[in-house]
């Protein structure tokens, strides 16, 4: 439902994903009038939500959009434009970054830079973020867990017997597997049925704790936040001085719409926020908003080195349904395999044959189905590093271009190799891997990094654009390093921190804790 909207708001938020949702959620308590503008609509709850054919082959829910790569080759990004953004399809792993991620961290392929804040500054906001998202997990179980103030909001969801047996075998080999922190509605009275169509699918039951259900929904119910749908923001309008955004130009169902306001938040996702700031160029900001001092806007694009792995025992069926319950961080920092960080391993939503064949049509689906019935599946994720030449730009015809060459690959290859070896040693002799390519922009980040120096960053430490007084960016663009973890909890925590800052310093009313 689209509210009747006003012509002027105290705060205008572009995008209803986890960043925009968290911001709206917190500012709803601050006494300001808030508008969220979303280019998509609500994702319908229907049978196709759980159909491999609809989701992976027909790409029914994927954005109908074409981007270009560095060489000008077009591709269809697997990204989602709905209330809730990409979190409608996320795997709900809601993991804190490590204390070490906020410091300079040396990798085999280069250096991950220090953040302008330390972990301790974000820790209280991680507490709020876990509460907002409804995370299940076990405090103290992760061997490299950063300090935290108390237990997770909900207890761990537990492992199915096959996963429990694998965890025991890994423990026998000296590893320290632990329950993956996960945001699903699995507490007493919750609606989650632990099905196989969670990670990569939308939840037909509304039992996955995505941004629509946990952040935007409560904000709207407060009666203090308006939401307008099917409205793509095309430009941020600045005043003659260039220091102030005064409004946005958008297309609402194709028709032009202008909305004015006092404070503007871009939360359109790392790639779309970059495109929006670039498209808002003026004489005062010839290279786009936030790009005068540093020329960093759009640069340092990161998305992780990601591999999906099937570890198969051809002689034994695997009856597991929900396997996204286990996590391994033994290789996250310098480790016994190599003296450098390698990354994180976590259970992947149960693979079904058609999911992997969607992009590799030469493999017969019946064969993949046989494998999937006998596999345990993993998501292997390693940090990629900021490189100014990996960048998001907008071509002359308005098309987004993502120029990206993966880096720090040795660490990822080592992790995949070592995990394959481990899987073979515990009874899974056949390994199939698929490395994610540029179309998989699910962990996009880094294109408007925050920092203390306007010469090398786009945002200040509270995510305000350096050379525009009333413009903030609160999606995954702000990350100065991608770390080796899923980003959404950190995006929520940072948005909560920024909302509190805005409420206290600009709106002069403390946002609720
Ligand atoms: C299959 C999949 C699995 C994932 N699994 C996990 C996981 O387990 N754990 C985890 O932490 N992360 C996971 N992620 C990543 C996670 O979903 C994202 O990091 C997170 O949702 C990003 O949030 P965001 O607010 O930065 O951007 P987005 O989610 O991209 O939200 C941006 C919003 O802005 C809207 N928008 C864009 N441009 C405009 C415009 N011009 N005008 C108006 N509106 C606009 C979009 O429609 C969207 O709703 C997964 C993602 C996918 C796709």
Sequence-ordered SSE layout with sheet pairings:
Elements: E1 8-14, H1 18-27, E2 34-37, H2 52-57, E3 67-69, E4 74-75, E5 105-107, E6 110-112, H3 119-133, H4 161-172, E7 178-179, H5 211-221, E8 225-228, E9 231-238, E10 245-252, E11 255-266, H6 270-279, E12 305-312, E13 326-328, E14 344-347, H7 353-357, H8 365-373, E15 375-382, E16 391-394, E17 400-403, H9 409-425, E18 430-435, E19 471-473, H10 488-505
Parallel strand pairs: 1-2, 1-11, 2-8, 3-17, 11-19
Antiparallel strand pairs: 3-4, 5-6, 7-13, 9-10, 10-11, 12-15, 12-18, 13-14, 14-15, 16-17
The protein binds flavin-adenine dinucleotide.
What form results from the Cα inertia axes? globular
The CATH class, by name, is Alpha Beta
- What is the string of helix and strand elements? EHEHEEEEHHEHEEEEHEEEHHEEEHEEH
* Radius of gyration (Å): 22 Å
Q: Which spans of ≥5 residues are poorly predicted at pLDDT below 50?
A: none
The largest sheet is: 7 strands, mixed
Q: Indicate the CATH architecture.
A: 3-Layer(bba) Sandwich
Bound molecules: flavin-adenine dinucleotide
Number of helices: 10
Structural class: alpha/beta
Total separate domains: 1
CATH superfamily: FAD/NAD(P)-binding domain
